Amino acid sequence: MDEKLFEASRKGETSTLLQLIEEDPLILEDNTHHASLETPLHVSSSHGHADFVRQILKQNPGLAKTANRKGYTPLHLASANGHVETVNELLKIEREIGGHELCRRKDDKGRVALHLAVIKGRERVVGELVMACPESIKEITDKKETILHLAGKNENGCKFVKGLIDGIKAKEMLNLKDEDGNTVLHLATLRKQHEVMNLLLQQPELDVNAVNSNNLKALDILLKGPKQSNDEEIAHMLHLASMPKLENQVLTDPSRPNNAVVDAVVEVDMTMKDSTSKKNNVDSFKWLEEMRRGTTVAAVLIATVTFEVALNPPGGVWQDGGNVDSNVDSPLTGNHIQGKSIAGDVSPKSLTWFLVWDSIGFLASMNIIVMLTIPSKLKANSIRWEYVRLMMWFVIASVHMVFLYGVQLTTPSYIFQRAVIAPFVFFYGVVGLLALRSGWSLVTDWRNLAKEIWNKKKR
């Protein structure tokens, strides 16, 4: 291409173009003999210079059909770059010459201009191309990809898929497969596009049980891939959608005998109950996840506090060596060591029980943290969850006892009995029954879980 003409095409200098044509009327014709190269129309279309494109098309409309080395026509380039005005100028030529040759012209990968606009997320261009050539929606690439397959490749995949399904009526392509046997649902699952999957699952035409070349359904891909927070909910939706529509079988299959109809009605009822049960399972899973996070935070805080008070016991530590002379609890005499607990010399029994309960709280909290951070699904009836519940009881008990012994070590006995013991007695008198009931429930759960495991082993 002439260097001046290339620069004029790149910058959109229409006056330079007209000057060059005046100097050499065949300058644009010369470029038609080099179909494998970029023409001035390719360059100006790629940069979106609509006026420049208009002038070239007036001089040589045939350039609109010319493809470069990659098979791109000027319409491909203008569409991919989102230049709506340039696309409209090129489509005028399409309307003048009749037919839809430009809109259905494919590049070396079998993609029409509409495909490139969808991949790049050019909404306005997609609308113009569909209005100009509705048939281009049905075009597929060399990899057998439909417009829906390609829609998921841009950042606004959900928005585009919804627009294509609702506005362009592309529902008949929901179940078409690419060269690997993947439907658009397979690809959305593979890319973890949960919004797209949720939208697709609302379409009654969708075949959720379609398998790809590896004989995998979308649900199989979801379960085998890396896990994300809301995979469980999507998996539940996929599972429900994959269930056979027994209601339709009852109404539309006249060959079934009457007793079979009754059986089918029973099956439908069981399916509805199973659906409700699975919904409850999803709600239970969400509750468990919230409980996991909350319990983990609480366990970390309690572990931190119990660790801290073990190193800094109530009453502090001796700042220097000397003799102990105290009448509190168990008075001892003799030398004390700098840095050792004062309560250990003054009231060793109370400090011993304080540290026993503090250790129980610390170890139980650490156990809870370990159990809740194991990277596997948490179930309401699992041994792991029951173990966490048991450890929480130990933590609660230890926190109570650490509080009692800690206050006892630092408070005169007459104040301790009135200000601490009395409220504790009143509190446990009120909630004692509830605590016993909860404790019995925990014991019952452990017993039922043990029976269930034993029965499974016997089978």
TrEMBL record:
Keywords linked to the UniProt accession: ANK repeat, Membrane, Repeat, Transmembrane, Transmembrane helix
ANK repeats: 70-92, 180-202
PROSITE patterns: ANK_REP_REGION (PS50297), ANK_REPEAT (PS50088)
Bilayer disposition of the protein: Multi-pass membrane protein
Coiled coil: none
Protein name as annotated: PGG domain-containing protein
Keyword Transferase belongs to the record: no
Main localisation: membrane
PANTHER family: ANKYRIN REPEAT FAMILY PROTEIN, PROTEIN PHOSPHATASE 1 REGULATORY SUBUNIT
Domain PGG: 286-407
Species lineage: Eukaryota, Viridiplantae, Streptophyta, Embryophyta, Tracheophyta
Keyword Nuclease: no
UniProt xrefs under SUPFAM superfamilies: Ankyrin repeat (SSF48403)
Location(s) in or outside the cell: Membrane
Transmembrane segments: 351-375, 387-408, 414-436
Gene Ontology CC: one annotated term: plasma membrane
